[in-house]
Predict the structure of C4-hydroxylase.
Amino acid sequence: MANRTLTDLPPLPPYTLAPRPPLISGVSDAVLQLLAPVVAYWVVSLFFHALDTYDLCSQYRLHTPAEVLKRNHVTRHEVVRDVIIQQVIQTAFGLLLASFDPMETCGKEEYDIAVWAQRLRLAERYIPKLFAVVGIDAISFAQKAFKNYPQLAGAVSGGVYSTRSFAAWEISAATLIYWVAIPFAQFLVAILIVDTWQYFLHRAMHMNKFLYTTLHSRHHRLYVPYAFGALYNHPLEGLLLDTLGTGLAYIATRMTLRQGLWFFTCSTIKTVDDHCGYAFPWDPLQHLTSNNAAYHDVHHQSWGIKTNFSQPFFTFWDRLLGTAWSGGDVSARYMRDRIAAQKKVDADTAADASIVNSPTIDLDKAKQQASSSQRQVLDDKANGGIQILQEEAKAEQEMRQTLRRSTRRKSGFDAMLISDRVSGRLHNRSPTILHADGVH
């Protein structure tokens, strides 16, 4: 086994570069990278829309159809229109950037794998020193192991093999590094970049009154999110929050076009899933990460609007900076909103009884839950007790007064203006209201 020396390294293979053929014939990878997220957005959204339309899996819904109808301040037509506008902007921006990218080539893969195998061979030189630290003679051990385990002997001896080629394990390990470990690391770093970008920009849009009123309040017209409303934003917010965030992650991690295709598509599907309005026990996207539809839905409620800023993957920034919802069990709050929305629908039933197909609500159970929630708040002296209920009642009274004043204006009724002002009032409520039920 001593025919080779430490200075000998297997030669690297030659390579010839050629343009990478497209994944789908007739469609360049650059175009496919931009189209795939759009297609995924509408395919996944339409799946959830079908569940809504045909009232399937209603036991997993976070909100009733009555809430979608009565609590949201924007029509589905407006949502679809604004989402399409944002997707057009994203696609145009992506095409502009793609025009500056060099043509991707292939043919160097075996060479790059051999480079990693060479790095492994160089790293093996430190193995005898590590063995010496624990009092083992690596050379003697390698000589004994050579007959039955020649590759192990070569590695333990510091990368001294009897042939001038790479060992089979070196090529296998280098292949795994090149095709799996590096892309996984790029994907993970890209996720961290997107989560960081979106958390701080999203939080700024809530904490800065101008940014919230001008940009982000549009997205919060959806108090009851649904799948195809995931990208319902002000066009400028969509560019800053989504397009630039994912674009920065893509560029910083030096992904290939095909890696970018998967990253953009997965990010899009995750965003849609976070707004789908369903808490499925079998949805992998809602369990692989701590961020899911139930987590983000709290952020869309008036009482949770200053919490749960993280999106779309992990929630570590909320945990680290104390902005995760900590107001305890939310079931009573959700039930209260369901009852209020259903009462409004029942009042409109004579006009159009087919608008809503809502499951029956057990009013007695709902009242018991609401009463239990109030007792929990009153008993929680550390977080304000009765003061919390008083502040919440005052905020709701102010909201109703704002609506009444707006309807009396002789200049006409502007529902969108009223909704913006109401969301503004809710957004500026005392932070103590958001922590009324104890610990979640």
